[in-house]
């Protein structure tokens, strides 16, 4: 019966998709291809009255299999994608974009550009308006490739020096790429979204031609416009631009403060801490201590010698001056229960000593101040340093012993 046929078809289709998923997860591309063939054939042989259109799964699964299959070629992939383009009008531009990505991965930049140009000229009634965002994305990627061509021409001219800039034909070609790239890149970054690569390229174009005000406006809009999603990279790009423009430290600190609030573990936090430590304002130096403590809360920073050096330097300054010990106490109070095992175990002391003696020195200084001279990490490292007759470790041991009362005051 018709109902029985529908039920059996549904079960077999679901089972086949399950097998395909399993094969994909195990990277069994040949097996996945065989099941996908069965899946497509079952769709073709379905005689139920229920209309089953071309599935997006066939496009996405097929693309994944062909890209990874050992016996697949770019020619076969291109053929498959062209078929997928003709099967679904609603997905046409998305399929075109995926095709372009694969062409770029294969190094076929000219072919990718040609496909983007063809996609940009595509029109299909009301679908053109419905897919307006996809069309803008197509144009943006074409702008990205125009930027790539502009960058190549720029490098050729710069490498040739002053003589190179006398070649008007090359220079005019470069300016032509600039105009095309700028128009498309400018359009995409007006739409709220995450457009990191497009923003970076557009700002590079503007800076090269000296339009710093426009570049600043673009970056400020990207970082501070509430319509755009929160994006740490937006503040990184703004900070880097301000730094290139040699803006006052107040502006640089402001940009990095927002980045710190969003991503306390960002690599720029060392730079931020250094900048704050050099400030004459007590409030900023206090923030510097908070910044470096927060960064070291993350596992990725555990063996960062620069970070430990920054913390050791500031802690040492505070201990010597005997001012602002309450800063250390405030930061340590929320960490004293878990930092000893996280950072200052005997196991880590041995490993740090073997791998990086400079790191172990900085950590031992911090450990000695925060946990006192009885700390396992400090005891092991200072003992090994004195045993190896390294003068700086003897000085370290004397310093911690001398200021051991500080540990009692902050603990």
From TrEMBL:
GO terms, biological process: transcription by RNA polymerase I
Give the species this sequence originates from.
Sinosuthora webbiana
One term under GO cellular component: RNA polymerase I transcription regulator complex
**Name of the protein in question:** TAF1A polymerase
Source organism phylogeny:
Eukaryota, Metazoa, Chordata, Craniata, Vertebrata
Matching entries from InterPro entries are given as: SL1/TIF-IB_Component, TAF1A
**Superkingdom as given in the UniProt entry:** Eukaryota
């Amino acid at each position: 019966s018709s109902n029985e046929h529908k039920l059996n078809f549904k079960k077999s289709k679901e089972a086949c998709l399950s097998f395909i998923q399993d094969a994909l997860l195990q990277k069994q591309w040949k097996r996945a291809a065989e099941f996908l063939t069965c899946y497509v054939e079952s769709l073709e042989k379905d005689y139920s009255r229920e209309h089953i259109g071309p599935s997006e799964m066939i496009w996405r699964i097929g693309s994944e299999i062909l890209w990874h299959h050992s016996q697949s070629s770019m020619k076969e992939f291109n053929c498959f994608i062209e078929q997928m383009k003709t099967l679904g009008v609603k997905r046409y531009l998305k399929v075109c974009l995926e095709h372009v990505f694969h062409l770029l991965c294969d190094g076929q930049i000219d072919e990718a550009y040609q496909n983007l140009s063809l996609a940009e000229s595509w029109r299909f009634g009301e679908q053109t308006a419905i897919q307006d965002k996809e069309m803008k994305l197509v144009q943006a990627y074409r702008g990205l490739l125009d930027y790539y061509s502009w960058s190549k021409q720029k490098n050729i001219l710069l490498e040739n020096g002053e003589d190179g800039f006398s070649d008007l034909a090359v220079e005019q070609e470069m300016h032509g790429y600039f105009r095309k790239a700028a128009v498309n890149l400018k359009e995409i970054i007006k739409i709220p979204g995450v457009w990191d690569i497009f923003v970076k390229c557009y700002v590079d174009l503007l800076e090269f031609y000296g339009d710093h005000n426009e570049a600043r406006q673009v970056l400020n809009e990207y970082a501070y416009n509430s319509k755009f999603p929160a994006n740490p990279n937006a503040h990184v790009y703004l900070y880097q631009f301000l730094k290139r423009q040699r803006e006052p430290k107040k502006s640089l600190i402001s940009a990095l403060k927002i980045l710190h609030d969003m991503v306390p573990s960002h690599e720029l936090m060392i730079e931020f801490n250094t900048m704050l430590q050099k400030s004459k304002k007590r409030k900023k130096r206090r923030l510097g201590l908070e910044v470096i403590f927060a960064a070291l809360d993350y596992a990725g920073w555990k063996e960062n010698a620069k970070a430990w050096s920054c913390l050791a330097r500031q802690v040492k300054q505070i201990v010597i001056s005997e001012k602002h010990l309450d800063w250390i106490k405030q930061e340590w109070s929320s960490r004293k229960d878990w930092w000893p095992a996280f950072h200052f175990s005997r196991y880590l002391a041995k490993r740090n000593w073997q791998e990086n003696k400079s790191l172990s020195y900085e950590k031992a200084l911090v450990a000695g101040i925060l946990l006192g001279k009885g700390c396992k990490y400090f005891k092991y490292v200072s003992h090994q340093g004195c045993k190896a007759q390294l003068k700086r470790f003897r000085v370290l041991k004397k310093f911690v012993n001398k200021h051991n009362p500080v540990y009692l005051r902050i603990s």
